[in-house]
Write a structure and sequence with these properties.
The structure is a homodimer of 385-residue chains.
Chain A lengths: L17 H8 L6 E2 L12 H15 L13 H11 L6 E4 L2 H12 L5 E4 L5 H9 L3 E4 L12 H4 L2 E6 L13 H14 L2 E5 L15 H4 L4 E6 L11 E4 L2 H15 L4 H12 L2 H27 L5 E2 L7 E5 L6 H11 L1 E2 L1 E2 L12 E5 L5 H18 L1
Helix pairs in contact in A: 2-10, 3-10, 4-5, 4-9, 11-13, 12-13
Cofactor (chains A, B): pyridoxal 5'-phosphate
Protein name (chains A, B): PLP-dependent aminotransferase family protein
Keywords (chains A, B): Aminotransferase, Pyridoxal phosphate, Transferase
């Protein structure tokens, strides 16, 4: 049968995730992988999870595994409202914050519409934007003068997607001034800001900066997730947004998957409201601070001259810039052969540029494997410089 | 802020679920509700679930709550492959079979494309099709002669959506002859068949009919779900399909939600492969057979003359046809006031016709509430005849 004639126009723009495709082909446990965005397995509260499951089944009975409300179970929305000081009516639970990105794009962007992003930015967001055939326009800065984007393009923007805290892939954080500039730009040109905040609670140094949501709640869709503060296997996230936008998201979500996983939501609610989340988060932050510091010192020790990197205050990633003649896409197979994996930085640039960069994850590997991996990687890089 | 100018064209076609909106407004536990498609809470194996959670956490450790593969965890795909005799390469796990419907529509239908359906059909599918601005064309029959659809329209069809077993809302089952006719029609006109089979394993009488997937695996996307054979709160389903179609679905799912919920998948795999599913299913079938029989006898006893209904061999629903002057949409508030809920049948017709019909669920209420509810409903109907 000829399937080609059947495919929708969107499929022509689908972009495979090089990260997820790596996972399909290679047994990453056999090599030193800085490629994924996996949390350290040691941060998963396995005993808590076992207890939470038994506890919510005892407390809620059949309700814990029956169909749930599309907006999410009330107990979880209340726990989030309480923790973040956001009204219940402004909270929608999502089946992962990737779904948050997808559903925001779905309600806002038609083919050809402009979506503003930083460059580089999160690959999974680029996948989603491309799949809807939107025009992705990178901002060079957040003011009208520094943006490097013509006014007529800004006027066509539906939203601007940013990860203000410890960005994926850069590890960088937007200053308060930059956040205010972006709010002013969005107000002038009438677009919404999608603030993706998966790493916000993983801060290891420096002072928290107010969320964009707190600066401009009427023009922001703020995405949160349990993936980095509980466990990614739960696939639970949330959106804070103005009620008029959340109403469209609510109706859209009915046809996407009816409701988020229910038992998982009750477990997450109890994890949050019982104080277990905060206790676990403190331990995770300690662990990751040490890993970030180790990674920075290993890079300092082993990387050849001409290589520089970001110094993130939190999150899971840092970003390397190699001498301009090094092509990290071409270098990838050699690295894999040597037993080390990374993600080429150019995948995070909407235009595929910056082929002399790479993203390194510092959360996943244990300390001895991290040292082994950075040594291997430094050798591979040195051979290409 | 003016959000209206920002919304995508799709949002203009979003259709609210009257069923889900009822759940938002009314405390259904206070009335006799035949409205939802909820399984009987007594079929949920709560003790098993508690055990399964502890068991998979002990066996798989951190892997059970880490990110998983986009196609689903191998153990679950293997359990499904074994149970249904389908090759592993033809199985994609979905985050609910509603997501299965959504993702099939996304990869196949552009705005204005034809999707063939029966009429009536599942409301959540209509929501999805409308949200992509497809043209929904009802088939009167499954042969070229009986379809009642011009050849040029059939030639524009991307897929035909059917629920062959114990259809929602009708409770009806397609004969083998009808399935074969549909396969022939799809072959002649080059469209795919989306076979939604959520109720297939809930057969209370009669003989199973082969799936459309078994008749035409190269042109069928078959959707299954754990919602009616385990518990709906898990939001897990699967698609059987040709590899070329599954590959597009795989890439699409990366940007939809990365992967299905992981702990839930391991629990479902163990529920299936340990034999617990079959044991639980036998009990559920016994329970539902009794409820279906009770519902049929109650309708016989209480409904006024001029009311007829389907006699399903399985599933969760039956469908009432009232005298032509009765408008079940208009009658709804009176029914709710009397303490009984249903879903007006016209919501299941793509053109909103058949306002003298209603869908009744017989799985959810216990036996005494069911009798109370049918008495109330019969009075409301009698008052309108």
């Amino acid at each position: 049968m000829n399937y080609e004639r059947l495919f929708s126009k969107d499929t022509g723009n689908f972009m495979r995730s090089p990260v997820r495709d790596i996972f399909k082909k290679v047994d990453l446990s056999a090599i030193c992988s800085f490629a994924g965005g996996y949390p350290d397995a040691a941060t998963f509260p396995l005993d808590d999870i076992k207890e939470l499951c038994a506890l919510v089944l005892d407390r809620y009975g059949a309700k814990a595994v029956q169909y749930g409300a599309t907006q999410g179970v009330t107990e979880l929305r209340e726990a989030i409202a309480e923790r973040y000081g956001v009204p219940l009516a402004n909270i929608q639970i999502t089946t992962s914050s990737q779904q948050g990105i997808d559903v925001c794009t779905r309600i806002l962007a038609d083919p050809g519409d402009v979506i503003l992003t930083t460059s580089p930015t999160y690959l999974g967001a680029l996948q989603s934007f491309k799949s809807y055939r939107a025009e992705i326009v990178p901002l060079a800065g957040f003011s009208e003068e520094s943006a490097g984007v013509p006014a007529e393009t800004l006027a066509r923007a539906k939203f601007c997607y940013v990860i203000p805290d410890f960005q994926n892939p850069g590890g960088t954080t937007m200053s308060l001034e930059e956040r205010r500039l972006l709010c002013a730009l969005s107000e002038k040109y009438g677009f919404v800001i999608v603030e993706d905040a998966p790493y916000r609670e993983l801060r290891y140094s420096g002072e928290p900066v107010p969320t964009i949501w707190s600066l401009a709640p009427d023009r922001t869709l703020h995405l949160g997730t349990f993936s980095k503060i509980f466990a990614p296997g739960f696939r639970l996230g949330w959106i804070f947004g103005p009620e008029e936008l959340l109403d469209k998201i609510y109706v859209c979500k009915q046809s996407l998957d009816l409701c988020p996983p229910v038992l998982d939501q009750y477990m997450a609610a109890e994890f949050m409201s019982s104080g277990r989340l905060d206790a676990n988060l403190r331990k995770s932050i300690e662990l990751y601070r040490g890993k970030r510091d180790l990674m920075l010192s290993l890079l300092e020790r082993y990387m050849p001259e001409g290589v520089s990197w970001t110094h993130p205050e939190g999150g899971l990633f840092l970003f390397l810039t190699l001498p301009p003649q090094v092509d990290t896409v071409a270098l990838y197979d050699r690295a894999l052969g040597a037993g080390v994996a990374y993600v080429a930085g150019s995948f995070f640039y909407p235009d595929g540029s910056h082929r002399n960069t790479m993203r390194l994850n510092f959360s996943f590997l244990d300390r001895s494997r991290m040292e082994e991996g950075i040594k291997l990687l430094a050798d591979v890089v040195a051979s290409a410089v």
